[in-house]
Amino acid sequence: MWQTWISNRHSGNRHLSLAAALAAAIMLAGASIARAQEVAVLVDGTPITNLDIAQRSKLEQLSTHKAPARQEVLSTLIDEILEINEAKRFNIDVPESEVENSYSNIAQHMGIDAQKLTDILNHAGSSADSLKGRLRAQLAWGALVRGRYKASLEVADTAVEAQLHLQPADQKDAVGYEYTLRPIVFVVEAGSPATAFEARKREADALRTRFADCADGIPFARALYEVAVRDQVIKFSADLPQESRDILDNTEVGHLTPPEQTNEGFQMFAVCAKKQTKDDTPEQKKVRDQLFEKKLDAESTKYLQKLRREAMIEYKEADKR
To answer: Would the pTM count as exceeding 0.70?
Structure first.
């Protein structure tokens, strides 16, 4: 009897200890959640919580591989609220679809899909909402500044020419081209085995070998099995990356560019015409874009400083400067 009582007593003590430990864990978790939801700053009535700061810090750390200072992250979040609020004041409200497209583009640039990007962010202690918040602010603010300061952001040709004089001779004397292209796609059904892709690649190479001009080559390509000939497109060298310019410049008029694998299959471009253009050369466009971005950054900085001076920013004690 005594042994049974002692055994039951010890068992009861273990249950009480376990219950106490669980209760303590629940209390700690609750306290942690409460701290995360605590407001660090109010920006014109919009709260920034400790969780917002923590998630953005992890996001910055993912891209820079360096933990940012809390005040630096907080300053960025304050700016984003000011930017979005000011954009809304001028009826600029970025559609959710535009934010999602930007988010997907980042994932695609990383070679993954949007869900995988979300998983990576969550695993790192950040979130999709944190990145999308930054994207939303960038899109809204960019549209606002470009719209309000359109006239002052224009870059004069004389400014471009002056900057080009500082460039090496082989760059400033480059010419621009206008290309007339016909996309040709050797279609490969999604999910096809590697052998199907290899076979279509050989067929594309075979067409490229015999393609001598657009007048005869386009009708011939259109008659081939599961080959799509797209509508004519016009491209300017100033709008293309260097790699694409090199491919087109090395492809004679009336011939095809090398086949490139896409989601549809293998795509080539028939270069049906190529002529010099009076528009910007690639180097002129590069210089013009650089000067534009410099002006945009200057206007954006002044605008944001003005908004900060006029804003009601209420720091909690721990985050006061």
So the answer is: no
The pLDDT of residue 173 is 45
What's the chain's average pLDDT? 85
Which amino acid is it at 9? R
Q: Per-domain residue ranges for the chain?
A: 39-151+298-319, 175-277
For domain 39-151+298-319, give the fold.
Answer: Triger factor/SurA peptide-binding fold (1.10.4030)
Closest CA to 303 of 136, 141, 90: 141
Backbone φ and ψ of 60, nearest 5°:
-65, -40
pLDDT range class, residue 320, cuts 50, 70, 90: low
| 186 membership: H or E segment, kind and range | strand 176-187
Q: Which residues contact 181 (CB under 8 A, 6 or more apart)?
A: 232, 233, 234, 235, 248, 269, 270, 271, 272
The yes-or-no answer to whether 39-151+298-319 and 175-277 have a common fold is: no
What is the tens place of the pLDDT at every residue in 258-297? Answer: 999 998 999 999 999 998 876 667 777 778 778 888 889 9
71: exposed, middle or buried (C-beta count within 10 Å: 0-12, 13-18, 19+)?
Answer: exposed
Range 175-277 has CATH code 3.40.50.620? no
Nearest to 263 by CA among 185, 194, 208: 185
